[in-house]
Each structure stands twice: as C-alpha cells, then as structure tokens.
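Annex B.
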Amino acid sequence: MKIRSTTSLDLDVLVDTVHTAFGRFPETPGENGGGLWWSAVEMDRGVLAFTDDGKAVGTATAYSFELTLPGDVLVPAAGITGVGVLPTHRRQGVLTGMMRFQLAELRQRGEFLAVLLATEGGIYGRFGYGPATYTRRLTVQRSQGAFRADRAVSGSIEVLKRPECGGIMEEVYDRYRRAQPGALSRPRRWWELGAGMPPVVPAPRYVAVHRDADGVPDGYAGYTLTDGSLVIDETITGDDAVFTALARFALDHDLVTEVTFKHFPTGHPLRWQLADINAGQLSSEIDWLWVRLLDVPRALTARGYVGDGELVLDVDDPFLGEHGRYLLTVRDGRAECVPTDRAQDLSLDVRDLGSIYLGGTTPSTLIRAGHLRAHSSAAALTADSLFRSAHPPHCLHWF
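UPF0256 protein: predicted structure tokens.
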C-alpha cells in the first residue's frame, strides 16, 4: 500500500473513491438545490491510499477552519472529512495508515488541533479523537407553544428567500461563531460555492431575519414548512432575546402544527420560557464535533479558563506512541503548561482530553465512567473547575 498527499489533479479520483466507499453516487451541480459538498475541498490537504498496482482504495482530506475556544479565543483547526475506504479493502490497515499519515502532515504544518464529525462513534477514538460537543432537537407542538410572559425585544423580523440573504447570513453567522465556544468558521468560499449543507447550500429555504432597533441584522432562522411541520435548520444569534423572538415567530406561523429546532443548544432557556415546560420535547441527542490534540501544551495554553488552580496531567497517546506529564497552571483566566516530573493528579488518554477540552464534558463524568483516573480526592473538583466553559460549547456547522 502507498499513501501520499493529493494534488489538484487528484480531485476526480478522490471524489469517486469516497463516494464508492459509502456506496453513493456523486450529485450533479444544482441537484438538491445547491452546490457540491466537495467544491470547497482543499486539494493540498488530501490523502489517498493506493494498492501496489495503483488502484485508489482510501481517502481523507481536511478543511482549514477557525475554532472558537472558551475565552473567545480563535485558533486554527483542521476539519477532517472525506474519510473512506473501499468495502473490498476494509480491516486491512488502510484507515490506520491514512490517519497516521494525516496526523504527521498536520504537525508538519504546525497545527495543534484537528476536529471531525464521526459517522460512527466507535471509529475515531482509537486515533485520539474524543467527542467534545453534542447536538439535539427540540420539538414544540404549536397548540402547546404559549409563553409564560412576553419578553420585549426591540427590532423586527423579515422573511426572505435563501438566495436573497446569503450575505446577511454570512455576516450574522461570523459574529455569532466568534463568541460561541465550539463553533467553526464558515470560510467565504463556502458561501460563494454553496458547499456543505443548508442553509449554506442555497437550497429552497425561507429565512427569518431579525434586525435590531437600528436595522442591523442580529439573528436568523432558516426553515422549511411541509405538511404542517416547520423545521428550522439552524437558529443563529448570540442574543437569547433574539432567539426567543425567532422562536415565537415560528410558533405563530400559520398552517403549522409543530416546530422543530435542529441543533438546539445545550442549556438554552427556551423550554423554561414556555408556559408548559413539557411542551418542548428534546430528542435525537448525538455527538457532533470530535477534537484531537496534537500538541498538548500548546492546546491547553491556547484556551481561556474561568477559575484558577493547577493540575498535573499524565497524558497517554497510544496511537502515536507518545506519553507526557504536564503541569497546568491557571491564573486570571490564562494558562501555562509545562512538562513536569511531579506526581500526577489525573491520568488520561489524549482522546478523553479532547472530550473535556471545550468544556462540554466534565472530567468527573469521565472519571465515573472509568476513563480518567483521579489520584487525589480533590483532583476531580479541580479538573471540573478548570475545564468548564462560561458558555456551553456548541457546533452546528456540517463539513
């Protein structure tokens, strides 16, 4: 088997191979109302695996994103995607070889974080990725959608068609993601090419755009309405009052029996604003963004922190055959992380460090699950305090 980086000449091979791996056929431009998911692929970041006779049997690639960390810190992150192995060549080391090759390439580029969306939860942990954000749906029956009290919010809502407001959505999303831990950037060319999933893809959608008292767009909700079911792809705003205004708009819509909010944020207060808290039914909770640390000290010093304290982390990276012990010291929201020979407070795998990195999974949860080992009675409390985020991490970008 031979593994190499892709070039601009390999696009057709990459697209054909990954589709064959998943038993699908490539869409044609304009099919399903938009662009092609691979139109934004960066061909200098791809990987191909070949048999000795030159047949392509595996693919992987990466996008260049910014990831928002706790503390409103923006850092580069490689978004791993297009990972697939032909059914005839699975369980023969192709995927493992590509993952090892790709991680080495990311380090050569100076990158310290990689993220991905996992189609199956049992695949990527062995390569050092851990689930770090989660998503779910909230469904509200319109007949039960009364609110406990009016919440005044200045501004207005305008309903536009998706092709009319791409620039507005790009601007609002970019402001939102810069202040939301766990959110990824959407590079301009994604919007221009219509890459990804709705509402980035200009498929038929209505978009409720909220504007503040000065007429500046500060939120939107893209939706479809079919057979009485109004489904919102995403509600984007950094203001809870604006979110509520968009939710009330949806629940007041004519010819609607139920409203479903996809990618409903963890900890959001909307259910508490309803007259009947049980009117909002949560479902379909799944993992979303998985995180992989490639440079532990650099990653831990990059993010912001809420509390002060120190913790000695003994981190094992079995996939890369690495091990390190680090003293993490946090003062006034910033951290130092250096190698140490002090006795460890926590022993953990790098994939579990990825899970707690954004604050969406508490260390104590993984201690109780038997994944982390606390070496002192105070270690779990200290770890929970240090790694929590002032705002729960949330990611809804598909890639």
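The two ends are 28 Å apart (CA to CA). The chain has a mean pLDDT of 95. Further annotation is deferred to the next reporting cycle.
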